[in-house]
## 1
Amino acid sequence: MAFDEFGSLISQICSRSTLAAGRPLAWTIIANPSAGGFTIRSRWRRHRAQLAASAGKSARNALREGGPSLTAQKRGSVGAPGLVLTRAAGHAGEITNALIQEASAGGGSPAGLPFYLVITAGGDGTSRDVMTSLYHAPAAIHDSFAVLRLPMGTGNDGSDTWELDRALDLLIGPSALARQRVLRLRTASGRGPFLAFNILSAGLDAFVTHMTNKTKGRMPGDSYKLWVDLAALFYDLIYKVGYMDVRATDSEGNEVHALREKLLLLAVGESGQRTYGSHKWILPDERNVCAIRQMSVFRKLALKGLFNYGTHIYKPEVMLWNAAVVSFSSEHPLLAQMDGETVLLEKEDFPATIELTEPLIPILKGSGSGRPYPRLSVSASSLSRQ
C-alpha cells in the first residue's frame, strides 16, 4: 500500500489548510496500516481518488506557515513527512503523549506557538487512543490542539464524517473548533474510569463486541454481523439476563428516568444520532440513551434488522431518553464496551455510573455532522399499535 502517497497528499492539504489562521500549523498524521481503508482495495482506490481531488481543491488556498510536527519528523516516514504508522495497540496514544510533551515544552503565550493538528487514519481503536491521551492532558494544552478523525477503518462509527472527502473539506474550507464531551464509566469498586467518545454500553451488544474482538481475522466474512446473529440465539445461555436498576439524571442532578427491569442492553451516547457496529443506528434521533427490555429469541431475531435503520425505537421493548448521568446495577456480571473495547463488570463494580463530562476535547466541526441521518419510515404514532 502506498502509505507515503497517502501521507504526502494529506500533508499537501494541511500545508494550505484554513485551520487556526494566524498560528503556525504543526500536523501529525497517525495511521494504522492494518485499517480497512488501506487494506481493502476497493476502498483504497476510492480514498486515493478523493485525496487527489481534495489536494487539487486545496491548491486554491494560500500556502501557510508551519509543517509536520517535530514528533512526526522524528518518528515518521522519510517519504511522507508528517505520517507516523502505528505498530501496535496503544501506539497512537504514545505518539499523542509525545506531541503533548512537545507542545508543553514551548511555553509562552499560545498565540505565538504552533497549533497542533492530530489526524487519525484508522478505526475506532486508533482514534480512541488519541482522544484518551488528550483527555488526560493538562487543560491548557487543549487550546493548542485539534483532532480530525478520518474514516479509514472498517466501521468508522467514531470518525468525524463517514466519507473521506467530507472530512478533508474541514481542512480546506471554513470550519470551526468545537469541544467534544467524554463518556466516563465509573465503578463502585474503583476500577476505571473507562472512557468512550462515541457510545458506551452494557449488555448484549458488548458481548457481540467482545466476541468479535476475540475472533477477528479467524472467522470468514463480517464477524460482527455473524456474532449479532449468534448473540440473538445464545446470549442468554452464556450471560444471565437479570434485573437491572437504572437511574438517569440531567446535568443538574434532576431525575429524568428510573426503572427496574430485565434489560438486554443499555447504551449511552456522547450525543444522539450516533451509530456503532458499522453504522447500526442505536441512537437515531436526538436522544442519547437507549434501553432495551429482555425478549424471546424469536422476537430478537425479528427486531435485530431494525437497528440498520433506527426503526427499533418504535417497538415497545425499546426506551429512549436524554440524560447526562446514568447509574445502573445488575444482578449478574455484565460486559460493557467503550468504542469497541470491553470490560467485564462484576458484582463489586455495581452500582456503575456512566457520565458525560463537560465539553473537553477539541475537534473540527463543519456546518453538518457528515453523517447521513436515518430516514425513520415508521411514525411515532404507530407505537401504540405495536
## 2
Amino acid sequence: MGCLRDPSHEKFALEFVERVFSGMPKTKALIEAYRSAGFVPRHGNARRLRQREEVRRRIEELAAEASEFANVRPKRIVVEVDRIARANLVDFFEPVLDGVGKPIAGQYQLRNLHELPREVTAALASLEYTEDGRPKIKLHDKNHANFTLLKHLGGLPEDQRAPQVNILNVLSVEDQQVLADYLEALAGGAPSAGGSTALEHREAAEVP
C-alpha cells in the first residue's frame, strides 16, 4: 500500500503502531498518536480517523511489518552470518554417476537446491548458467561475514590501523649499542660497504 497521501494521517498511523508495540494501551496510544500528528486530542475524532479505510489498511500494514521485525533477534542474525562465513562451494555439487552408480572422475553436477538444508542455501547470493548450460554460483562475501562475526564477538579492536613498530623495541640493549656505534662510524666517514662493520664482526664471532 505504501505511505498515505496525507502526511498527518501517515504520521498518525506510524505513531499509533509504534506506541501499541511499545506496550502502551490502545486507547491512550490512539490519543497520543492523534496529538503527535498535529490534531487536537479528542477521542471521538481520533477513533473516526483510525476507522477510515485507507488509514485502517495502513495501520494493518505497519503492524505486520512491526511484527516481523519484532521476531528478529541478535542471535538469529549471528547464526545467519555464521552460515555465510562457513559456506563452501563443495556443498553445492555432487559427483556425476555412471550407469552402475559409480562416480565419474572429475565430473560434478549441481545438486538439487530444494533438497539442500537452509544453512547451506543461506549463503547463496546468485545462480546463473553459461551458454553451454554450466552453473555459475556466487556466494555472499565470506570475508565480510567473518569480519562481522569477529567484531560482534569482540575479536577486533575499534582502531584497525597497523601499529607503529619501533625497531629499537625488538633489539637487545647490546645490539642497540652495536647499531649506535655503526651509525656513528658512518657519520664520521667510515665506509658503508666493502669493509667489515662492528655488527658484522659481532655476527662472525657468534658463528661456531
## 3
Amino acid sequence: MSLISRIQNRLKYGLLTRSVLLRLRKLNITFTPYFLYLEKDLTPHDDVHTYQVERVTWDNLEHIIEYFPDPTIRLKTWRRRLDAGNSGLLLKDGDEMVGYTWASLKYCRGVAVRPLFELSEKQAYLFDMYVTDAYRGRRIAPLMRQMCYAELGGLGRTELYSISEYFNRPARRFKEKLGAVPVELRLGATLFEHIRFDVRLRGYHRNLPTRWWAVSNHPDPKAIS
C-alpha cells in the first residue's frame, strides 16, 4: 500500500486524529488535510435587496477598516491584498458595516503551498469572509456569498474555488449547504516552518486544475492571506 493510500485510510477511519496533529505541531511539523471546493450559485436570498455591496479600494480603505477588530493588523494585510490585485467586497446596511469577503483573481492557494495554481480568466478563489457580531445569526454568510458570486460573475468569473480544512466540520457543512462540491482532498504540510509541500490524496473529478504535488519555500508570496 502506498503512503498516500495509507493517509487516505487513516483519514477515512479516524486514525489520524486531531490530537496527533496537535502533538506534531509542537515539533514545528504540521499536516493539514483539506478539501478544495468548487462553488456554485445560490438560490436568491430573501434579504438580497436589504443590503448594499461596496468594493474595498485605496480611497475607502482607511475609513472602513476602523469598523472591524484589529484595524492595524487588517490595514497592513488589506494593503498587501490590494497591491497584489485581490478584490475585497463589503456588505453594508445603510451606514452600518455588516461584513466583508475577499477574492483572488490570480491565484488559488493551498493550506501550506501558496499559490497552489494560477487562475484562468473565468476562475476566482474566495477567502476570508467575516460577519460583524451585530449581524451574526441572520444568515448573512450565504447572502454575502451570493453577492460575491454576482460581482465575480459580472467579471466573467464563474468557476469559483475555496478551501476548507478536513476537520473543520462547520465550514464544510456551510459549503455543502451552498451547493459547493469537493474537487479534491489534499494534504498540506509544513516542516520546521521552512519546507512546504502539498499533495493530492484524492480527486473527485476529471481535468483537475491542480498538480498532484506542489512544493514552496514561501509562506504567502502572492498576498493571499
## 4
Amino acid sequence: MKYAITGNLDKPGLREAVAELIRMLERAGAEYIVDGRIASLLGAETQRTLAANSRDVQQMVTEAGILVAYGGDGTILNAARLVGSKGTPILGVNLGKLGFLAEFGPEEMEKAINDIDANRYMVEERLVLSARSTGIGDSVFYAVNDVVVDKSRSSRVIDVEMHINGHFAVTYRGDGVIVSTPTGSTAYALSNGGPIVIPTSNVIGITPISPHTLNGRPLIVPDASLIRLIVREGAEEVLFSADGQREGLLKPPAEVLVQKAPYVLRLVKRIDRSYFDVLRAKLFWGQDARAIRE
C-alpha cells in the first residue's frame, strides 16, 4: 500500500502532523509520497530524505493506494475533486473544527496505519452529483456535498421551477434551492431545515433556501433522478455553485441539470465507529442541553 500525503497548507499544525506521520510510515516500512508543497515546509533534514518522495498533486493521485488529506471538510472536498473518477480512497485527518468527512484525528494515525496494514478498515462509497448549465458552456460541476442555485447578490426573492425526470414538481419561491447528496445532508441543507440522511442512502435531497411559502418543503428523491431547475426571472443573475468551491454566474432565464455522477467518492472508514457515533460526537445529536448545563 502506497500512501500519498496532502493537506491544507494554511492549517496550524500541518507541518508537525505530517512529519510525525512520515516517521510512523518509515517505522512501519510503508511506501509513501508527499505533496511537494508540504515537503518544502518541513525541516532541511526531512526535505533531504523526501527528495525522491515528493510529487505534485496530480502525480500523487495517480500513484496512491490511499490519499491521506490533512485539514477540514473543505480539504476533503478538494481532495475528492482531485481524485475524481480515479477512485483513489481518501483518508481524512481532521485539523479543522467540525470535520464530518475527516474520519481521524492526528493522534489516531498510528492506530489507523496499523489497522490498514492488518486490513481492519473499510472503504465506504458516497454519492457524487454532476451538474451542468448551458450558461457556463460545456463545463460539468461535480459535488460531494451539494449543488446550489441561489439569487446571488440580489435582495429579491426568486422562483426556482423544479422538474423531476421530465415532470413538473414544484416552484420554490425564496432565496434558492440546495440539491444535496446524503453526505451533504449535514452541511448547507441541514442549516436550511433539511433532514439528516444516512450517507450510504441511494437518494438525493432537495431543500429550499429561506422559502417564502410555508408549503415549500424539502424533498427526497431516488438518486437515479434527473433534476431540472429553472429560474425564468426575478434576479439579474443567478449563482450556480458546487460544494461552495466551484461556481458560475447565470443570466435568467437560467437552467441547471443535476444528476448522479458516473463515479463515487471512496472514503477510508474505521470499522469500530458508526455514523450515529459521528452524529453524537459532532452535532451532540440527541443530547439535552439542560442536562449538559447541569
